[in-house]
Amino acid sequence: MNRPRNQQPTANPVIETCQLSRVYPMGSSEVQALRDVSLYIAEGEFVALMGSSGSGKSTLLHLLGCLDTPTAGSYLLEGQNVSQLSKDLRAEVRNRRIGFIFQTFNLLSRIPALDNVALPLLYRGRQQQVWERARTALEWVGLGERMHHRPNELSGGERQRVAIARAIVTEPTILLADEPTGNLDSRTGEEILGLLAQLNRKGSTILMVTHDAKIATHAHRTLHMQDGQILNGCVAQ
């Protein structure tokens, strides 16, 4: 937390991209959502990503989360080139190495919090200690007494805590948080940011998308996107 903002990180890279680009066909024309993005995020960093709507934040997050593949350039996740993996291999990488926290929570409404948190482990095919690990994650976010409630029985802040528990239950390499406080009041948002800070202190590498400069101050450094480019990113060495 004491490193000056935007200083080149020196620890081992978790995320390293080189000239990453993404072009989408749009009828007879093309839209270039990302333009030659070179980015370096070190192990244990907490990085905020800011930019206006249409700047490329969501596209970059989808690529880093292995939800999509780039048109050009490379993406190394912990040294492994995951740029052009098959759909099945990308799904395996997501399940084992990446945790997602969404603005809209993305919880299954018909099942209780405990089951929502256990799902990533069940998708992995892992049966041992699934429920114990899910309970531990919910207890860590302060929902030990609410784990059998369904999402519609929980407040917005509690639902986001469930989403955080689900993201960390697989012990991922990196957490990708897309506007994690966007649907919360300021007090609850601060509580969620406190949980993210705790996870970072425990060793999690976090990339958080936000439109709020005040929220971004909780990160080690802030990157700004415009027209599909990062204006102040750390170029991979």
What count of domains describes the coordinates? 1
Q: Overall mean pLDDT score?
A: 91
Order of neighbouring strands in the sheet with most strands: 6-7-8-3-9-10
CATH topology, what is it called?
A: Rossmann fold
Number of helices: 7
Can you walk me through this structure?
This protein is of the alpha/beta class and 237 residues long. Helices cover 31% and strands 27% of the residues. The protein has helices at residues 57-64, 87-97, 113-123, 130-140, 156-168, 186-201, 213-216, and strands spanning 13-26, 29-42, 46-51, 72-77, 80-81, 98-102, 174-178, 205-209, 221-226, 229-230. The strands form two sheets. Strands 6-7-8-3-9-10 form a six-stranded mixed sheet, sandwiched between helices. A four-stranded antiparallel sheet has the order 2-1-4-5, with helices on one face.
